[in-house]
Model the fold of this input.
Amino acid sequence: MAQPANTFATNDQVGIREDLSDVIYDISPVDVPFTSSIRHVEASNTTHEWMTDSLASASNNAAIEGDDASAGASTATTRLNNYTQISEKVARVTGTARAVDTAGRSDELDYQVMKRGKEIKRDIELAALSNKAKVAGNDTLARQAAGVPSYVITNTSLGSGGSVATGDGTDTMTEGTARAFTEAMLKDVIESAWTEGGAPNVIMARAFNRSAISSFSTNRSNIQRAEDSTLHATFEVYESDYGELKIVPNRFGDASMAYVLDLEHWALAHVPGRAMVTYDIAKTGDSDAKQVLSEWTIEACQEASSGIIAALTTS
Done:
């Protein structure tokens, strides 16, 4: 069939209004499972400090009847610290960009500020889990908080040639030669943390090694109900000999590490009033700008409660 002669169609028209959806689609991940799950506390100084302690080893404690009491040796607490780190971003938009009619947002500056806040949350998650040492900072150098791997020294699984950090945030872990993630590595670290007195409740890993966990316990029996139409190719909880651990994929952790965490013994400390704040920046021309920032640090309340499997292959 052909179009009848002199029929006026859309391809002949001039001035058809654009059809632009009033929605902006963005799938950038904003989930930050580590920093959103641990306690949030205050840091009243740029050097945030805390103390750890431990009991003497258990022994066969037997005393002679009627004997004089003798004092055992006492040990001091261990004092640790980390520096607060300022994570910031600036949104600047021209006056014209704020005045024009925009789809999906009413004010371009507000929209850009919202995006910067989400980006900072991701930046903090990445930095908190990174294998990096603390930096005191000065007039020309930014302060930096040490990441989790700089404190975890008691319960680790490293590659050949690897070594743990000092444990006070001043240096980093050396992972060693990369190797494939195995269940034996995971079981060893969980057992070590439990022996120390910890109760790990979460395993976090990036995509490749989260998938590796799904292959663990391959000799177990899985029962599939006939009426269940779902193919179960993974599991969300790892039941160890020392309790259950939730398996949480984390997009921002170190790709070569799996974190075995007792979340109760980690904290995210913020300087009061600076957890996530927005400031107007002085106007210098035909544009408006806002600074979004967060001043934070990581507190390793008791590193021996957790562990890390490092030097894992990532592909």
Observations:
- The two ends are 56 Å apart (CA to CA).
- The CA atoms of residues 181 and 209 lie 7 Å apart.
- Residues 219-223 have pLDDT under 50 and may be disordered.
- The first strand starts at residue 39 and ends at 42.
